[in-house]
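Run log // design_07
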């Protein structure tokens, strides 16, 4: 069994909780992160409090599950050591049988972090400033540092080159010797986890292991299929799996995660955004603040036109709807059903962010419900209007909504 879990909106759909639930309920052997880095923040409940995983796959929280950080990731070694220590304090031990890091993954260095801040001064994407874009940039330029480079004698010259380029392009002055020493120190701490993860995963799949591929961010942040240039620099869509792991997907299932409303962090088009007091209310109800940066998330209604696009891009086989409980007590709930441009209904998602900024959205209105739903465990026990809302989304998206999440805790979920 190979399952890919994808975010169908702009990230923050609640993937952490759902992956934790799926790993525990379906018993996957291996969980693999295939793109992104410490820009992600997957929140999972553990012993009654929130635990935020930034680079480590969600599998690290389940005994007996192997977690793999694939070659498509960009990894901040300092953050990784921090995460590993934090988990150690909570009693999770990660030996090399439980965590494996690709020898081909790229490393985020201080030069990337500084460059991210510098780039943001000239073009505002509203990045997380974790060095993601610059790390993927040096990967594409073929000047990046990979995990395997730490075992080679030219590591120092690679760092020198990156520092030199930073100085040339942005006037940023960094000490390459200090970077070399610090990174080498962190590398020594994680060295035992590094391996050829592509080979390992291909072997595992051949021998029948079940693997869950965990995406970070969401489809609308995909650098090719999202709202470019207001995107992240990787491919959170299903296409990113093969590139980011070295595993050819064959008989896989795609599970799309969508929140019952929409949020986005950072700049960029957001057609169903609710500006003003209504958006602020939804933000407070849903506690919509970045789990990594604490930035307030922009909030808006569910956008069926956008999610249908994401379903098509990824070939989603089923959808898990999250945070439906947050919509309780809304008198009316709106769903975006289509985009109009100059009075003409659009058939597909516009490529240009400025065109997307000009579209007007057609909406369908639903009556809300007032009964709390977090304790409900059977779909038939939902208030009628909640059932009508979920059924209507399913019809609009033309994909089965298999589960509805109604709270933060792993068990607060309803199977349909
Ligand atoms: P970057 O990934 O830090 O380069 O940021 C690019 C865009 O993606 C910005 O709008 C970020 O706010 C957004 N972004 C990156 N990671 C996440 C995430 O995990 N959740 C939601 N938005 C994200």
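design_07 sequence
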């Amino acid at each position: 069994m190979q399952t890919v879990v994808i975010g169908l909106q702009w990230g923050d759909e609640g993937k952490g909780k759902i992956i934790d639930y799926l790993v525990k309920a379906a018993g996957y052997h291996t969980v693999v992160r295939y793109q992104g880095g410490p820009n992600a923040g997957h929140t999972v409940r553990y012993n009654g409090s929130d635990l935020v995983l930034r680079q480590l796959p969600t599998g690290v929280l389940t005994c007996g599950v192997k977690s793999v950080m694939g070659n498509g990731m960009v990894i901040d070694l300092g953050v990784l050591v921090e995460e590993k220590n934090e988990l150690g304090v909570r009693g999770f031990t990660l030996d090399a049988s439980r965590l494996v890091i690709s020898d081909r993954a790229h490393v985020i260095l201080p030069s990337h972090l500084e460059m991210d801040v510098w780039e943001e001064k000239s073009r505002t994407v509203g990045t997380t400033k974790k060095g993601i874009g610059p790390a993927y940039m040096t990967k594409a330029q073929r000047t990046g540092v990979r995990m395997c480079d730490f075992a080679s004698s030219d590591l120092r010259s690679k760092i020198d080159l990156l520092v030199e380029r930073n100085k040339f392009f942005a006037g940023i002055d960094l000490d390459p010797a200090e970077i070399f020493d610090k990174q080498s120190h962190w590398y020594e701490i994680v060295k035992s986890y590094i391996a050829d993860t592509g080979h390992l995963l291909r072997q595992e799949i051949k021998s029948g292991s079940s693997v869950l591929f965990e995406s970070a961010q969401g489809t609308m942040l995909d650098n090719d299929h999202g709202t470019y240039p207001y995107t992240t620099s990787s491919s959170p869509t299903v296409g990113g799996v093969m590139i980011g792991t070295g595993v050819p997907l064959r008989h896989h299932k795609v599970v799309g995660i969508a929140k019952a409303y929409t949020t986005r962090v950072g700049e960029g088009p957001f057609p169903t955004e609710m500006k003003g007091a209504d958006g602020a209310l939804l933000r407070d109800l849903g506690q919509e603040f970045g789990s990594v940066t604490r930035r307030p998330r922009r909030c808006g209604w569910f956008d069926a036109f956008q999610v249908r696009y994401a379903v098509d891009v990824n070939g989603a086989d089923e959808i898990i709807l999250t945070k439906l409980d947050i919509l309780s007590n809304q008198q009316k709930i709106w769903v975006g059903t289509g985009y109009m441009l100059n009075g003409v209904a659009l058939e597909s998602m516009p490529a240009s962010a400025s065109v997307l900024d000009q579209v007007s959205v057609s909406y369908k209105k639903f009556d809300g419900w007032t009964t709390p739903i977090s304790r409900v465990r059977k779909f038939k026990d939902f208030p009628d209007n909640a059932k009508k809302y979920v059924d209507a989304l399913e019809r609009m998206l033309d994909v089965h909504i298999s589960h509805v999440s109604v709270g933060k805790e792993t068990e607060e979920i309803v199977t349909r």
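The CA atoms of residues 330 and 368 lie 5 Å apart.
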